[in-house]
Amino acid sequence: MRNKLFDDLPKSVKVSSGKWVQILPDKGEGYELYNPLAEKELGRLLFDASDNWVYDGDVLTVDEQEELAGKITGHQKEMDKLLNTLKEDNGTAEFFFRSGTK
After folding, report:
1. How far apart are CA 10 and CA 22, in angstroms?
2. Phi and psi dihedrals of 82, rounded to 5?
3. Is residue 58 part of a domain?
4. Among the residues of 19-75, which ranges form H helices?
5. How many domains is the chain built from?
6. pLDDT tens digits, one per residue of 17-47
7. How far is Cα of residue 15 from the mean position of the Cα atoms in its chain?
């Protein structure tokens, strides 16, 4: 099920690409996506009871879609933590392999 993180209120989010996206809960199982600066509709994110989502539109990149879905469901913090862990692990691995070859 959808997380009620947004309490069914519109939210503005800046995605990593630099776009501002306004997320507007609709009356169904989805969210309308709107660029308030360009005054342009960006499509919709639709969710099912298992938190699976599908993007209904053709404007956003896959990364932007995933980022917005994560913010809506509340999984964004988990993803950020995972990415930071992977970056730290990669740095440790590089140090280990580089120092081992000297």
Report:
1. 7
2. -60, -45
3. yes
4. 62-73
5. 1
6. 999 999 998 877 789 999 999 999 999 999 8
7. 8
